[in-house]
Amino acid sequence: IREDVESRGLGDVYKRQVLIEGATPTQSISPNKFYKFESVTTLTITFSPETPNVLNEYMFQFTSGETATVLNMPDSVRWIGDHTIEPNKTYQVSIVNNLAVIGGAS
User: Fold this and answer.
1) Cα dist. 91→36, 50, 59 in Å?
2) Other CB atoms closer than 10 Å to residue 93's CB: what's the count?
């Protein structure tokens, strides 16, 4: 795990990126940090506690290899639209108030 912080005078709330290695990670993610996973076959996500008095967004990116990634999320998460994961795409996920959106690109 490597965490990079960059500040541009607006505070560090949305300036954190956490790089995670491994093909089958289980990761508790913190709000207002961007987690970047490499190519994963299975990805299990849980949530760290929210930060009080701010909008809490949980964000991450992963790459699905030759076989579609199996994404395991807390049962409390509800998806906006289709959340089918296909092979050979990179996806980004954003969750606010337990509502998740996902988008993928080749």
Assistant:
1) 10, 23, 11
2) 23
Please name the residues in contact with 11: beta carbons below 8 A apart, sequence gap of 6 or more. none
Report mean pLDDT in 10-residue bins for the chain, 106 residues: 51 70 94 95 96 93 97 97 97 97 97
Where b means 16+ CB within 10 Å and e means fewer, 8-36 reads: eeeeeeeebbbebeeeebebebbbbbbbb
Regarding pTM above 0.90, the answer is no
Residue 71 CB coordination number (10 Å):
19
**CA-to-CA separations, 13 to 5, 8, 48, 64, 88, in angstroms, rounded:** 10, 11, 15, 28, 31
How many whole angstroms from its chain centre is CA 43?
Answer: 10
Show Cβ contacts of residue 2 under 8 Å, excluding neighbours closer than 6 positions.
Answer: 18, 19
